[in-house]
Specification:
- The protein has 274 residues and is mainly alpha-helical.
- It has 2 domains: 140 residues, no CATH class; 90 residues.
- α2 runs antiparallel to α3.
- The longest helix is centred in the C-terminal third of the chain and has 56 residues.
């Protein structure tokens, strides 16, 4: 009876030790990766703002700034994911009687799970930033945004200095013009009928003749479309850099977890047995 009881306990212990996933280690690695990512992003934001100058010809160019931002995202992903993956592999439960190839696969999975959990947690806490990236630049011209769209409304309603001004009529026209521009930019092109109407409103509110009003409407719409296209291209490039950093982070976390697991299994304490 005593021998049977001992064998039963040994089987249960072996079953517990052979658990495929150590979620505590995965969570620890994910928290470390997410925290380090936040620290590095905060540092990068500070360094990035210090590299941008409000004066023309000073500081880095827009293209250089975009490339350096993308490279920094990759560096952040590599550093944070490597440390998080190593922690997940180093702290995982040691498996007994498991083949070497299976151990390698499980360590890789631990690193990948730690990276995935860190990514999901970071996205949850940074939902606003993620929605801005996913939405692209089209939200810039939404009526609720107000700021960027107001500039183009001001450009349309800029009065002729030699003409008499009616500020009440200008204030009444602003919301309508903003809605027309926002609707046209969302559709990709302001309809001809809306262009004609805008030209009439601009001519009536600014004192310009009809030809000059038509030209002003066309110039402002083209200027706004150029700004929108540039913003969309910048958002697309940022998305590509972000995708590359995520993929590299996943690889770094998986590889670092195998190294952490190897250190755990082959640890030689020397004279100290821990």
């Amino acid at each position: 009876m005593v021998i049977e009881t001992i064998e039963s306990v040994e089987v249960s212990s072996s079953t517990e030790e052979s658990s495929a996933v150590s979620w505590a280690a995965v969570a620890a690695g994910a928290v470390a990766a997410a925290a380090l990512t936040l620290v590095l992003l905060a540092f990068g934001a500070g360094m990035g703002f210090s590299a941008v100058s409000p004066w023309g010809g000073a500081g880095v160019s827009a293209g250089t700034f975009q490339i350096s931002t993308g490279v920094y995202l990759i560096v952040v992903a590599m550093l944070a994911s490597t440390i998080g993956g190593f922690i997940a592999g180093r702290l995982r439960t040691k498996w007994v009687g498991v083949h070497t190839h299976e151990v390698f696969f499980r360590d890789t999975a631990h690193g990948f799970l730690a990276w995935g959990l860190a990514t999901v947690v970071s996205a949850a806490f940074l939902a606003a930033a993620a929605s801005n990236i996913a939405g692209g630049a089209s939200s810039v011209f939404a009526p609720a945004a107000g700021g960027p769209l107001d500039y183009y409304v001001d450009a349309l309603l800029r009065p002729n200095p030699t003409a008499s001004q009616n500020t009440t009529d200008v204030r009444a026209a602003r919301p309508e013009i903003a809605r027309i521009l926002a609707s046209g930019f969302r559709g990709g092109e302001v309809p001809a009928a809306d262009r004609s109407y805008l030209a009439q409103v601009v001519a009536a509110r600014t004192g310009l003749n009809q030809a000059d009003a038509d030209k002003r409407v066309s110039d402002v719409i083209n200027q706004a479309k150029t700004a929108l296209d540039n913003a969309r291209k910048a958002a697309a490039k940022l998305s590509l850099w972000l995708t590359a950093s995520l993929l590299i982070g996943a690889f770094a976390a998986s590889l670092a977890a195998t190294e952490g697991g190897y250190v755990r299994d082959n640890w030689n304490p020397g004279l100290t047995d821990r």
